[in-house]
Amino acid sequence: xxxxxxxxxxxxxxxxxxxxxxxxxxxxxxxxxxxxxxxxxxxxxxxxxxxxxxxxxxxxxxxxxxxxxxxxxxxxxxxxxxxxxxxxxxxxxxxxxxxxxxxxxxxxxxxxxxxxxxxxxxxxxxxxxxxxxxxxxxxxxxxxxxxxxxxxxxxxxxxxxxxxxxxxxxxxxxxxxxxxxxxxxxxxxxxxxxxxxxxxxxxxxxxxxxxxxxxxxxxxxxxxxxxxxxxxxxxxxxxxxxxxxxxxxxxxxxxxxxxxxxxxxxxxxxxxxxxxxxxxxxxxxxxxxxxxxxxxxxxxxxxxxxxxxxxxxxxxxxxxxxxxxxxxxxxxxxxxxxxxxxxxxxxxxxxxxxxxxxxxxxxxxxxxxxxxxxxxxxxxxxxxxxxxxxxxxxxxxxxxxxxxxxxxxxxxxxxxxxxxxxxxxxxxxxxxxxxxxxxxxxxxxxxxxxxxxxxxxxxxxxxxxxxxxxxxxxxxxxxxx
Length: 481
Hints:
Layout: E1 2-13, H1 39-42, H2 53-65, E2 69-70, E3 73-74, E4 77-80, E5 90-93, E6 100-109, E7 112-125, E8 129-132, E9 138-141, E10 148-154, H3 161-177, E11 190-200, E12 213-218, H4 221-240, E13 248-252, E14 259-264, E15 274-275, E16 282-283, H5 286-294, H6 300-309, H7 314-322, H8 324-334, H9 340-361, H10 372-383, H11 389-402, H12 406-412, H13 421-434, H14 436-444, H15 449-459, H16 466-480
Parallel strand pairs: 12-13
Antiparallel strand pairs: 1-10, 1-11, 2-6, 3-16, 4-5, 4-15, 6-7, 7-10, 8-9, 11-12, 13-14
Helix pairs in contact: 3-4, 6-7, 7-8, 8-10, 13-15, 13-16, 15-16
């Protein structure tokens, strides 16, 4: 048996207005090719790079949030290699003094917290986009060249494919919470490079295989999962045949997850790193690091823990963590009450009925007419047995369709539940008289009472408290026996 050994490199385009080392706009998506370029982008003689302060500060904030040791003396380096998407013949990156080192990301696996260690976080510039035509021509669009890019490198800590996917999703949440990147993967704003090998279960713990395969430019988490499954299967089959796998770089075959050989794997020596002579070293003050720590937003794992302490189930909490707008709206509701039962009940309605309406209309939660106070009104009236869940659904539907206040709708339409036991008893008797077969079945199967309660609710348009309806039905059916 073999198990995967996985490390990830994650590339994040930083959310800034301009590129990393020039004033060209970084908002290039769907722009005319080569319309966001300048002499710095092309590396023309005499064009000097000037680091983007906003990009640097965002990279520093991410490194602090991901628990990294910060290199207070950091610098940029030249990473030399020839490829058409690098007109300078080198990339400005960071080598031996990255902004952050030795951090970690916490994920939850089967209810347990687990840390994935980060080797480094550094800042660099993105490359151009190559477009390969059917007649073997290659066209280059330099709009993307020079866009600020954060690279995050993990240690090979992943013990399963599931952990890799959980990590990728959690990291995406974190960078969006911190406003580092929009991480829109369909726009190339978050990309993965996968380093993967497999080792026999007989190999001692801590020992790694003598090879690794790199797969570049994975542009979605679903494709990342497909690639992992494909490579584990491919490499396992080769090793079982007694073949030796050489270090190599592989590319993707469409979105299938299948990989194709591209070239032998480079090492850091191949890139001939040396300090970037046009950018002086950068000093990060201790006070700057402390200020970032003191002003960090609540991160996804912290938010999930807070929700679970309020009584939410893990899956409910995940929904509010993943959809930050929904979580923010829910937090505004929480400010209105300190009663956990009301908070838990509201969560169920947001995740269920309200989310259904939003999906049907393709709206975000910020676009809906239902307010936090409306939901609290409905929750409280349901718990006081003034209205039923059926009535609450009708009120929510009315607000989505027409707007209005929950309290006013309930009062104006006379939707409060009927709790008069004598009235309920009369309706229950009528239902019993009209449904002799159900009454007969009740003697054999007590669960038939639910069908009779449903009939009472229908005849009263949902205005009877179902608990009272069941109590009255039970009394009458016992008498009839």
